[in-house]
Structure formats: C-alpha cells, structure tokens
Write a structure and sequence with these properties.
CATH architecture: 4-Layer Sandwich
CATH class: Alpha Beta
Distance between the termini: 17 Å
Strand content: 25-35%
Structural class: alpha+beta
Length: about 260
C-alpha cells in the first residue's frame, strides 16, 4: 500500500562538553522514493569521537548519491557505509593522537520496503502502532549478557560496564554488522534510530506510544525533554531520527 513518510532529525548535547553524535537524512538525488537515514555515536577523546561519527554521515550521503539499485542491493549499500567509514576511522588513528571510534545505524526506504543495518549500541526500532516489530541488538557487554539470559533490562541499565562495546567502527577487529528488512511496511508504522543518550531512559512502549501520538517533530521534542529530565543532570549526547509512515497526500513516498 502507498504511504508518505514524515520525518524529523533531532540532537541535544546533553550534559557533555561536546556533541559527538552525528545524524543525517538524505533523499536520492536522482531517484524519487529512495531515502536514507544514518546515525552515529562517536567515542575517542576531544573531537576524536565527533570526527569518527562524521565519517559515517559522509559515507552515507556520498554512497547514496552513487547508489544504483539495478547494480547494487540495499544491503550492499548499507554495508558499504559502515565498512568504508570503519576503514577511514582506522586510518585516522595513524595520523592523529586520538583513538576514534563510532557506532553506526543506517536505514534505507526504497520501493515500499525498509532496510536497516547497525553496529554498536545505537539502536534501530521498528514500531507498528505501539507494538515493537523489531529492535536491534546491542553489540555491548550487557547486550551479550542479556542474550544469554544472565541480565534483564533493569539490570542492564545499572550495570557498571554498560558502556563497554564488543563491536564498533574504528577498532582493530572488523565491525559486526547486523541487518533487518521490512517487506511490507504500511501507514501507521514508524522507525526510530537513536543513540544510547535517548533509549537508556525509555521502555519500548514509551518510545512507540510517543511517536504514535504525535507528529515526528513534536514526538522528538517530547522524547528529548523527557530524556533530559530523567538524566538528572548526568545525560549523554542525544540524537534521534524518526521516520513515520502516514497515508499519502498525493501518492507514493514523500519526504
């Protein structure tokens, strides 16, 4: 069924001295109906994390501009963004004193289907109304403990090593990339990309119900405000991208 996409991108520095999250939302320059979103949470000292995260957004924009669906699959496009950003981030370690790393979440909406990929602990959510259809698994120590049944959601949020990543961009090991696909998204569905500065303060239902109840911009404002309140003066950088599918005003996918 045809749908339009309403979108919003939002960031907040939180209680940090520097914003090291980066976000981007791009339309294909020549092919209507193709849209990409990318989000990255940088790590690695003053400016190092920001530089790493910026590479993800640069690669997302450039690779989408050269993307030709007849010769490249959506998964190959999403993978190329993460792999190429990883390579560039690694190279910067040899030319600076910084030790840059980054998470990455990429999302593609094309011909009525949705594709996504991620590495690290920035998250991707796929909601149908207030139900969670899919949520990315964190490539972190607590994420692994949860998958093994040794830790629950409440314990994960308080674990002293909750920020330890098992995979990210810029490390010596190749990034672990996981993929997702929605074959038939429809009006009423929504997608959320966000850093841990946001998701750490919400249940899945809270995120879904807020996005369901409001237009993307209002929902983003509500979520950022609540995250800041719940952080109690100790909040991380916040970044999020909302893509909400609605009945088409004039047919097709709009942005």
């Amino acid at each position: 069924m045809a749908f339009s996409a309403e979108t919003c991108v939002a960031t907040h520095i939180g209680d940090r001295s520097e914003q090291q999250d980066r976000v981007g939302l791009f339309a294909h320059p020549k092919r209507p109906g193709i849209m990409m979103a990318a989000l990255a949470d940088g790590m690695g000292g003053h400016s190092g994390g920001a530089m790493a995260a910026e590479q993800v957004i640069i690669r997302a924009r450039q690779n989408l501009e050269s993307y030709a669906p007849l010769h490249e699959t959506p998964q190959e496009l999403l993978s190329s963004v993460i792999d190429e950003a990883h390579t560039v981030i690694k190279l910067t370690r040899f030319t600076s004193e910084k030790d840059p790393h980054s998470t990455a979440v990429t999302f593609l909406l094309q011909q009525g289907k949705a594709y996504w990929a991620h590495c690290g602990d920035s998250r991707f959510y796929y909601f149908r109304g207030t139900d969670t259809v899919s949520r990315s698994g964190d490539h972190s120590l607590v994420g692994e403990l949860m998958r093994k049944g040794r830790l629950d959601e409440a314990g994960a949020l308080k674990h002293p090593q909750r920020n330890v990543l098992l995979s990210c961009l810029g490390s010596e090991r190749e990034p672990c990339i996981e993929y997702g696909l929605a074959e038939a998204p429809d009006a009423g569905d929504s997608f959320l990309l966000c850093s841990d500065g946001l998701w750490a303060y919400f249940t899945d239902f809270e995120l879904a119900s807020t996005i369901q109840a409001h237009p993307p911009r209002t929902a983003a404002e509500c979520l950022v405000r609540m995250a800041r309140e719940r952080a109690g003066g100790a909040g991380d950088n916040i970044s999020l991208i909302i893509v909400k599918l609605v009945p088409p005003a004039g047919g097709g996918i709009a942005r």
